[in-house]
Amino acid sequence: MSEELSINDTEQFDIVTCYQKFLKDSPDMSMPIAAIESLVELIKHSKATTLSEFMESLKDASQKLKSSVRNSISLSAGADLFLRFVTRTSHDVTNFEACKVHLINSGKVLVEKATAVRHKIAEIGVQFIKDDATILIHSYSRVVMLLLQQAAARKKRFKVYVTESRPTSLGVQSTKILRKAGIPATVILDTAVGYIIDKVDAVFVGAEGVVENGGLINAIGTYQVAVVAKAANKPLYAVIESYKFVRLFPLNQYDLPTHTPDLLTFPDLESPRYLSNNDESEDDDVENFEASNPTVDYTPPDYITLLCTDLGVQ
């Protein structure tokens, strides 16, 4: 558990500031765990005098957290998990203050187990990396990094292609981490996946969330990688913590909670802005295209060879 935030009880507790501080102070902390930590801090600072008031404050704080980020999939998984636990616990309340203490302690245990969960996934998933294999990974995933490092520690020999993963370019970060661990890795353009797929033996991806039908929500481009892998008959393994299972059932990309009507819209070329032949306005639109593009996509379960979680292989 991170060191308790220095927030004066007499001051207004801000859940978003608390959440951002956890992520800043612990770069390896996942968004779901940071959400749980923040809700635990809220309980510590809660002035609620009744159970109903207490529950309402937790729900409001959870919603405020989700609204504070553009992509709340991963954050929601942690917040919703903790709220379900709080709801179950509250049914057996006989002493309100004792209940708060119990929730705080349980939150600490859950957070402490998070690191062990990742190591367990790596232990389970390392069997799917064969000697002399060529691996393709997309973007950046702490669990995938740990898995590959575990395989290298066991003296397995393999090479890794890493998609650049625009617009965040987190693939560059992944490549640096792998090379530092002595693992041969090279960055490829997102558009080069089809070009190199015949050289690849297996694809590994993380996920921001696993939905109810077994599909994945992950960094934009994951679905594209999965489609290419399936067409080339290459296995795609998704490695993910079980606390990232989310209660969503998307049927397509546009069912995601991150989808908004302004994503990938076409400009109205009949508007005065374009009819004025203002080249500067047109250039701004084109150069700022990232803002109108999605950050995550949905990969249906048909494209996933297996899910590797701390609960086992599915």
UniProtKB/TrEMBL annotation:
GO terms of molecular function: guanyl-nucleotide exchange factor activity; translation initiation factor activity
Stretches for region Disordered: 274-297
Domain of life: Eukaryota
Pfam families: IF-2B
Chief location of this protein within or outside the cell: cytoplasm
InterPro entries xref list: eIF2B_alpha/beta/delta, elF-2B_alpha_N, IF-2B-related, IF_2B-like_C, NagB/RpiA_transferase-like
Location in or out of the cell: Cytoplasm, Cytosol
One GO term describing the cellular component: cytosol
Key words, A-Z: Cytoplasm, Initiation factor, Protein biosynthesis
Annotated Acidic residues bias: 279-288
Similarity comment: Belongs to the eIF-2B alpha/beta/delta subunits family.
Complex and partners: Component of the translation initiation factor 2B (eIF2B) complex which is a heterodecamer of two sets of five different subunits: alpha, beta, gamma, delta and epsilon. Subunits alpha, beta and delta comprise a regulatory subcomplex and subunits epsilon and gamma comprise a catalytic subcomplex. Within the complex, the hexameric regulatory complex resides at the center, with the two heterodimeric catalytic subcomplexes bound on opposite sides.
PANTHER family named among the record's database cross-references: TRANSLATION INITIATION FACTOR EIF-2B SUBUNIT ALPHA (PTHR45860:SF1)
Name of this protein: Translation initiation factor eIF2B subunit alpha
Organism: Funneliformis mosseae (Endomycorrhizal fungus)
